[in-house]
Specification:
By secondary structure, the chain is an alpha/beta fold. The chain contains nine helices and twelve strands. The termini are far apart.
């Protein structure tokens, strides 16, 4: 202790009383020392994890079609096995999921729609069904059903903007000549349709609760929106541990159902 005090040129213990006590500087050194030891231990554990095949970071792009609370439940399960991999999650819309993977902004995409680009590995995740819905007071509710495309075209559609940066952007179920209000995500699209600002198709997991609550009304249409098959995608031929864990986890039917809201 004396040598340490000499090197620091500071008193670490007050020796004036019957028993030596830490000075304010001594307390500060003790706390800082504990933090340094903890950091050293964490660094040692992280290096061991990297050496055993756990990546330092896994970047995940998640489609806005999926229930994000279910994604968080999967993260909680991953935490039980995680060996130091840091997760970075981002939300993408339409082609933005594949774009994030192709342009190396993500290591894993969850819920990408349409078939994957060339050179990307993939596995099916779930099938998503869509419902055409409008505000209960919308003028479309006064038209005979099933609604024709020519009738729907008269009213503004709500569309979520494709977040793709380099791949060609996509749009969904828009009719030629139809006025469009573009919003950032599918959740914003739901809010806009519940506000009576436009019409369009919504995933069942979002539409059903809004219809049950009286915020939306389902209408029959002559040309429905086909179900969409969602995929998980990645680039690594031999996935490292964290990526491999998520691929095995997402292959479970119960997990895919949870991500799509049980529908």
């Amino acid at each position: 202790v004396q040598k340490l005090e000499d090197e620091l040129d500071a008193m670490l213990f007050d020796r004036s009383g019957h028993r030596a006590k830490l000075t304010a500087i001594g307390h500060a050194l003790l706390e800082e020392g504990r933090q340094l030891l903890a950091c050293a231990s964490q660094l040692e554990q992280k290096m061991h994890s990297l050496a055993s095949g756990w990546e330092p970071e896994l970047r995940i792009a998640v489609s806005d079609l999926l229930d994000f609370s279910a994604i968080l439940a999967s993260v909680a399960e991953f935490d039980q096995y995680n060996q130091g991999t840091r997760l970075r999650i981002q939300r993408e819309v339409f082609g933005g999921t594949w774009d994030a993977l192709v342009n190396q902004r993500a290591d894993l995409v969850i819920g990408a729609n349409d078939h994957p680009p060339v050179g990307v590995l993939s596995q099916p995740l779930a099938q998503v069904n869509f419902i055409f819905a409008v505000h209960p007071d919308h003028p479309l509710c006064q038209h005979p059903q099933p609604l024709s495309a020519s009738v729907i075209r008269r009213y503004r559609a709500i569309a979520a903007a494709d977040s793709s940066r380099q791949l060609p952007p996509r749009s969904s179920s828009l009719l030629t000549g139809q006025e469009v209000l573009t919003v950032p995500t599918i959740d914003d699209k739901l809010a806009a349709q519940c506000a009576g600002l436009g019409v369009g198709f919504l995933p069942e997991r979002l539409a059903r609760p809004a219809i049950a609550a009286g915020r939306l009304r389902q209408l029959d249409v002559q040309e429905g929106k086909p179900s969409t098959l969602l995929f998980c995608g990645w680039r690594e031929r031999q996935p490292s541990h964290a990526l491999a864990w998520f691929l095995q986890h997402l292959a479970q039917a119960s997990i895919s159902a949870r991500l799509c809201g049980g529908i």
